[in-house]
Write a structure and sequence with these properties.
This protein has no helices and 9 strands. It has one domain. 0% of the residues lie in helices and 59% in strands. The radius of gyration is 18 Å and the shape is elongated. It is mainly beta. The strands form 3 sheets. Strands 1, 4, 6 and 9 form a 4-stranded antiparallel beta sheet that branches. It has a 3-stranded antiparallel beta sheet with strand order 3-2-5, with no helix packed on it. A two-stranded antiparallel sheet has the order 7-8.
Length: 128
């Protein structure tokens, strides 16, 4: 049986400066050059037998997205998280929170052209 779990996620973020074709016009509040700061928190939650949170592990980071780069990927990982038998379940939930801190409007890119996934997460078992 697996004794630990590791998880990784990537979130693609785009700044929405005025005149960009990457965002709806309603999101374009500022001219190019303002940049943006977001706070991200990646969580791996071990669920209990009732599918409720039992143990939560997290990785947090502040990220700056420049208008020059325009699209930026934030990577997060948690490695070798012990599986807690006291939870009564080996089920896990992954989630990433993104909070706008300052500057340019930002959007999270999920899918491009209806085909290519731009924001992803995966968890996998680690065996002895």
């Amino acid at each position: 049986d697996a004794v630990t779990v590791s998880a990784q996620a990537n979130v693609e973020l785009t700044t929405c400066y005025q005149g960009t074709a990457s965002c709806a016009s309603a999101m374009q509040a500022y001219p190019r050059g303002r940049n943006a700061v977001v706070h991200t928190r990646f969580e791996l939650v071990q669920l209990n037998a009732a599918d409720r949170a039992c143990r939560t592990h997290q990785f947090a980071a502040d990220r700056t997205i420049t208008d020059d780069a325009h699209h930026a990927v934030g990577y997060s990982k948690l490695s070798d998280i012990p599986i807690d038998d006291a939870c009564g379940s080996r089920s896990f939930l992954l989630r990433v929170y993104v909070k706008h801190v300052s500057g340019q409007t930002v959007k999270v890119d999920g899918v491009q052209s209806g085909v290519t996934s731009l924001t992803n997460g995966i968890a996998f078992n680690n065996f002895r």
